[in-house]
Amino acid sequence: MTAEWGGWSTGRTVTTALKPRSGPRRASLACATMVFAGDVSGEVPGSICVSVSGTGKTTGRFCSRDCNLMTDLLRQEISATGTLVVKVGTRVVSRDCGTLNHERIAQLAQELSAICETGRRVVLVSSGAVAAGMSQLGFKQRPAGLAQLQAVAAVGQASLIEAYDRTLREHGRHAAQVLLTGDDLNDRGRYLNVRNTLLSLLEWGVIPIINENDTVAVDELMVTFGDNDRLAALVTNLLQDALLVILSDVEGLYDADAPGSESRTITTVHEVNDSIMALVDDHDGGPGRGGMSSKLEAARLVSTAGENVIIASGHKPGVLADIVAGKQIGTLILAQGKSISSRKRWIGLSAQTRGSIFLDDGACQALTEEGRSLLAIGIVDAEGDFGKGDVVSLRTGPGIELARGLTNYPIDEIRMIQGLRSEAILQRLGYRSYEEVIHRDNLVILRRV
Q1: What is the residue-wise DSSP string for 290-331?
Q2: Domains along the chain?
Q3: CA 264, CA 429: separation in Å to the nearest integer?
Q4: Do the beta carbons of residue 124 and residue 164 sit within 8 Å?
Q5: Radius of gyration of the chain (CA)
Q6: Using an 8 Å Cβ cutoff, are 409 and 426 in contact?
Q7: What does the alpha-carbon distance between residue 380 and residue 264 come to, in Å, rounded to a whole number?
Q8: Among candidates 210, 215, 216, which has minimal Cα distance to 230?
């Protein structure tokens, strides 16, 4: 978006060129004129009203002819994305008592089917296995023990997928159950297998219903996603060119700690940074594992890969239809730059790191601002247990993660060559297979210095 700013009155204008993204069903957006929101009399029919959000960024909404229905042009373009990954949380598909809400499942099935009728592809990441299991077993309280929770989830998985499949079949659709663990997306081969399976299902018009395999996923074994927000983000990045819609029990991200009379929904977030994360207070006693901070972390993963995210209320009737229509619903979190390749998404945003390499200031600058490869001379330390070809985290001296990449050397050799010029590697190791410790083609920048 390029802008030419006019004067400084309430009705100052901005001439803006909106370039449509490539891909199927993309909206064609012409130039538009922006006016700063203030006096209603200053609004121009067919213009975009711009206001400053709580993040210090400007946000825009389209002002219709009668100035009653506001439609965001940017959201119209984003809503035309060909693939939607919809994540529904436990509180969206369960009742207050913790059991599965079959009426809400039926509503979701209707909305998802309607989206498919527009030619879009839909993937659903759904929590609710424990709630479904409680319903089947007649439990009134959620079990506290890990083994008991996993057993309830095992009962509930069958009931949950049956509820989705039965209600989708009423609309001529089929559901496919896909249960994943962290290892499935950590291993490159299994990662590609999952991707190919999902693409085949989508090609057939089937709606994949994805959930974490709670029966075998254990935090202590480091094979969980932690919550389905992160799982939904990884699935979105797996598919590429997809819009992630996170349906929660709140309207979106608020500009105060909690929804209330003094708080407002932030309509647009340009970057999930520290100031945005500071708005979140996740101290609640609800049944779900992922609060707003979890959703923002998921949004950070997706936006870093170059895709957009919308967080909205899953209790609002027709919420998905409104999102597809480009209406201003919930909080839109914008993509950061261009979409990155599938391989780099796996390296930087999916695979678990096996260790960390710490860099000096010059190396940090070379990597994040100049697009250079990592050389041994810029390394000050390394930790972990990694070998050649493993994914490692690249960090500043104080430990801030800047990037991730595939290392050409194991940790014991990196400690031997750290701080050396590339031509000295042969003398120290007796060989030099690579001049770079990490080549820029195997490097993904996560944060700028």
Answers
A1: --HHHHHHHHHHHHHTT--EEEEETTSTTHHHHHHTTB--SE
A2: 2-72 (no CATH), 81-344 (3.40.1160.10), 353-445 (2.30.130.10)
A3: 60
A4: yes
A5: 24
A6: no
A7: 45
A8: 210
Structure pTM? 0.79
Copy the structure tokens of residue 286: 């609800």
Listed range (207-211, 274-278, 283-287, 409-413) with the worst mean pLDDT: 283-287
Give the model confidence (pLDDT) of 220-241 as tens digits: 333 445 568 999 999 999 998 9
Can you list the alpha helix ranges (DSSP code H) found in 220-291?
Answer: 228-239, 274-277
Judge contact between 419 and 376, C-beta under 8 A: yes
Query: Six-digit token pair at 73?
Result: 């042009």
Q: How far is CA 302 from the centre of its chain?
A: 3
Residue entry with tokens 């390029």: 2
Contact indicator for 255, 331 with CB cutoff of 8 Å: no
The beta strands (E) that lie in 328-445 are given as 331-333, 355-359, 379-384, 391-395, 401-406, 443-445
CA gap 148, 144 in Å, rounded: 7
Starting at the edge strand found earlier in the chain, the sheet holding 48-52 runs 2-5, 13-17, 32-36, 48-52, 58-63, 70-71
Q: What is the pLDDT of residues 30-50, one digit of tens each?
A: 333 333 333 333 333 333 333
Contact 13, 6 (CB under 8 A): yes
Crossing angle for the helix pair 188-203 and 228-239, to the nearest 10 degrees:
80
The label of the residue with tokens 């209707």 reads 110
Backbone angles phi, psi at 223, to 5 degrees: -120, 15
Amino acid at 11: G
Q: Return d(Cα 221, Cα 226) in angstroms, integer.
A: 12
| Rounded-to-integer distance, Cα 130 and Cα 89, Å | 12
Distance in angstroms (rounded) separating the CA atoms of residues 164 and 161: 5
